[in-house]
Amino acid sequence: VQLQASGGGLVQAGGSLRLSCAASGRPFGSYATGWFRQAPGKEREFVGSINWSGSTTYYVDHVKGRFTISRDSAKNTVYLQMNSLKPEDTAVYYCAAARSGVVTGGPRNYDYWGQGTLVTVSS
Questions:
Q1: Nearest C-alpha neighbor of 1 from the set 118, 120, 113, 117
Q2: N or C: which end of the chain has fewer CB within 10 A?
Q3: Distance in angstroms (rounded) separating the CA atoms of residues 121 and 26
Q4: pLDDT tens digits, residue range 53-104?
């Protein structure tokens, strides 16, 4: 499975962006997909995850209510809708896929990673 993250860019605080994670190589409808981010000088952190069917999502506290993960199996794509963006959301965002199919925050549980897409939120 190859993952391609896209949709990053520059946005003002309070604005919105939607990131996409497109899979190729094989259908990844049975995989869970997670989003991670890495800010300059900081370690990569888990943002949220969606299970294989889209029935379950999980988010870290500081993005709950602002970020939403969804998936379109027909398009082999998972989305991260980010609203009410803050300067501290500035980071390179990565998507990853887990064969287990269940939501998980541990990066070691993910089997495939996409390249990152940069999100910059100006104050």
A1: 113
A2: C
A3: 34
A4: 999 999 999 999 999 999 998 999 999 999 999 999 999 999 999 999 999 8
